[in-house]
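pls design
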């Protein structure tokens, strides 16, 4: 009954929808990279240094070298960053508009190479390997998720069997949330009064004035009840992962997903700092919405099948079958005559 969700037409539509989302996000990132303060050493001190500080030890020497190299010619390097991201976006958008597969593939390959470079050298792998990265802080990193979606586009259709017991494009969102729950539980700092409260306080310093007033009460609450706050957040992430994993994603899982993403994006990440003049991307929640598309298509298909089954088995369906029964009997008698 789930065959339509695995048809090449459906798979292509899902891939293109996710690809459009990534293309527009790269375009936004290019615009953010072109902000005036990005061409100053503020970019190095406020963006690169904090990210590199949480990089794993085996990357520390390389990250330090990258930092020194960029600092020496910050304006030149920032032009390179902005233009590379613009090239990715233009290649994908033009390729999609003109139905030009080669241009799309070129944009995707460039995005994979560039995205991995930024994730390793510019973001310090978002703290994934050092125990400092959770979904609340923006891990595993929006640029890494761009890379994953780009890689998904190249997967053959057999990897996109959304009705299968396990399907990587469908289940990755749930796995990311399960990772987020484990990281939230395993990070000791989040259980103390200087954990979530300090993180929100730091985001408030980068947020516009209209956001600060709504962040202050949560800072007070999480400072007073750190264990309760972290337990609720970890439980929500775990619930989203459990409810959306597999070939039967639950409706409440999508509701909880929306609430969790809004909470993390607003209070935990201040929309990626895009209103501060120093944000390089809108952070992970918009990309996680794109990753939710395969699961949403699966959920929609199952609801459609369930509605059809209910129509056949319910009173209306029974009456329809009963009305057709005399006609079928008459036809059979005519054939026998």
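designed seq:
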């Amino acid at each position: 009954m789930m065959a339509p969700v695995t048809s090449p037409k459906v798979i292509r539509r899902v891939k293109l929808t996710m690809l459009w989302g990534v293309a527009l996000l790269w375009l936004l990132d290019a615009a953010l990279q072109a902000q005036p303060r990005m061409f100053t050493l503020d970019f190095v001190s406020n963006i690169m240094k904090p990210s590199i500080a949480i990089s794993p030890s085996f990357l520390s020497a390389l990250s330090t070298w990258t930092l020194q190299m960029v600092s020496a010619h910050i304006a030149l390097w920032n032009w390179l960053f902005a233009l590379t991201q613009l090239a990715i976006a233009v290649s994908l958008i033009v390729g999609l508009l003109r139905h030009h597969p080669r241009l799309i593939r070129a944009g995707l390959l460039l995005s994979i190479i560039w995205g991995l470079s930024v994730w390793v050298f510019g973001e310090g792998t978002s703290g994934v390997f050092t125990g400092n990265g959770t979904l609340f802080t923006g891990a595993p990193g929006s640029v890494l998720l761009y890379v994953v979606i780009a890689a998904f586009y190249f997967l053959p259709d057999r990897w996109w069997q959304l009705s299968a017991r396990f399907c990587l494009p469908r289940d990755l969102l749930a796995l990311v949330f399960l990772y987020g729950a484990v990281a939230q539980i395993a990070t000791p700092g989040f259980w103390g009064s200087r954990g979530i409260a300090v993180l929100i306080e730091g985001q408030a310093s980068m947020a516009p004035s209209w956001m600060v007033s709504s962040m202050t009460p949560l800072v007070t609450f999480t400072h007073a009840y750190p264990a309760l706050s972290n337990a609720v957040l970890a439980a929500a992430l775990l619930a989203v992962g459990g409810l959306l994993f597999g070939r039967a994603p639950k409706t409440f899982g999508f509701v909880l997903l929306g609430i969790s993403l809004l909470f993390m994006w607003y209070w935990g990440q201040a929309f990626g700092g895009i209103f501060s003049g120093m944000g390089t991307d809108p952070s992970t929640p918009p990309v996680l919405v794109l990753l939710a598309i395969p699961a949403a298509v699966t959920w929609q298909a199952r609801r459609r099948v369930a509605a059809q089954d209910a129509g056949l088995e319910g009173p209306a369906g029974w009456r329809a079958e009963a009305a057709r029964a005399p006609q079928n009997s008459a036809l059979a008698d005519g054939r026998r005559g």
